[in-house]
Amino acid sequence: MKDFVNRIASAIRKVINRPNDHDKLPLLSYTPKNDVSLEPYANDLYYAFSAADASTKKIALNIAFFGSSGTGKSSVIETYEKKCGGKKFLHIFLGRYDSPAEREVDRETVMEGLILNQLIHQIKPTDIPETRFRIRRDKNPNDIVNTVVMAVTLVFAVIHIIKFTAWQNYVKSLSIIPIQKLLGVTAANEAPLFSGIIAVLLTGVFIYKLLKYSHYQDSIKRVSVQGNEIELSSDAEDSYFDKYFNEVCYLFEKTDADVIVFENIGEHFPIQTLQRLKNINTQVNRRRQNRPLRFLYLLPADMIDREEKGKLFDFDFPVRKPNTSEWISKYEKLSSLFVSGEQNFLQDIAALIDDMRILIATTNDFFRYKKDLSQGYYNKLFTMMAYKNFFPKDYQLLCNKSGFLYCLFSKRSELLQAKIDELDKTIESLEQLIQAAKSEPMRSYEELEWVYAKRIEQLPPSQINAEEIKNLSEEKERRYKNIENQSVLKFKALKSEVRETRKTKEQLTSCCSVVEMFDHFEINDVFHRIQDGISRDSDVSISVQAHYDLLKYFIQNGLIDETYIEYIFC
Hints:
Rossmann fold, 27 helices
């Protein structure tokens, strides 16, 4: 009975401790979707993949989709591929994020190598027997055994022919009759004929294998023209497409695809490689007249100017930025966590994030960490996760008490004091103007002009020079200003400006947060001061400068403030 009760209790504990489906995090993936709306691109897709040009009757073979990072270029083509059904797509991913400082020729070599590598791995080896580009595969053990058996058989056949007389005598000298009878067949006078046939056949097999291997492995280094040898592709910096143009065309021709999609092309992708791909496409389609091969490039929006587009592509169209506000409002698992007023915050912040990958990463991070905070911090947590994904380097620096955002908060007192010092100087300057206006004995411009004209007339000839005239002119201008400030309106304006400046100073002295400080600062000026005042990674600086608007929204709305330590996760 006791054992029975223990088993029941154990089963109940398992049920209680079993993960609830409601507790699972509603995380999202970055993979392209295949169910996006194609309505905005219906005409473009039809023209790109189906229709021929009305005037030339030619179809578009080199097509480009342009769009910023995260706009959903891959999702558009994945959805079209799923819906069209009649075309076969082959995808080549070029996600190598290189440095702009890398040599152009190095980028060309690497990118063209990536293209060839992925292309070869997506074609059956039996479909490209003529290529010298090979994929490393495990050897079939049966092939190895067969080769060894044939080699041994060939050796024995040759020895049998050469040493046949000695073999005959050896077989005749055997004292064990059954063995002598068994080997008697090989000692017959006709036996060398069969050994010769076997040796010839096996020799032919080995010669065929050797020639086949040599043909696939060796590249053509030289050709002979009228007795003179010319070395081909001798330039060490020639690209793969230039060195092996015929070979590359052969590979593309043998692909069982209607469209080859080149994805994840970065802004530093070499234009020369795009030019070579267009030449390859032209050559391949001369051979594939009944089944055209299209090249589709998914490119950054600002990678190529209008003039180059016309040279490189037959057709192109832009992929629109996703409506992130609409997406986030439809994502019920997220919007349901925020009260009605904060749902507007979600839509506002989503509108500033036009990269769906960053928005998805932000949402995933929010769900990972929300359980550690109360609902009152949800908006700040979501904002901090957005900052983490927009500025990953500065976020890590913030965790280590350095970087742009850390300095923005830690240097608040220094910035305030600098601003207060500026206001003190402004007040001092205004008070000097007021005092100068009070002390000015002249009351009209005409009177002042007459006084200075007399002073110049009374100068000794030895003192009349350009410098003295300039000094008198500057002094007269200052006194002109004093007379101007004596007017009732101007005098009141100066005093009012002093009062307002003192009031601003008092407000700055009582500032307790960065948000309050920004009521009296030009925010761009603050950002530039922070950038100039810290030693920083240049990448962090460039990244933050590129998204000042987003950072302004975060700071001015108090979504990231001095309490960030309560909702940052390092």
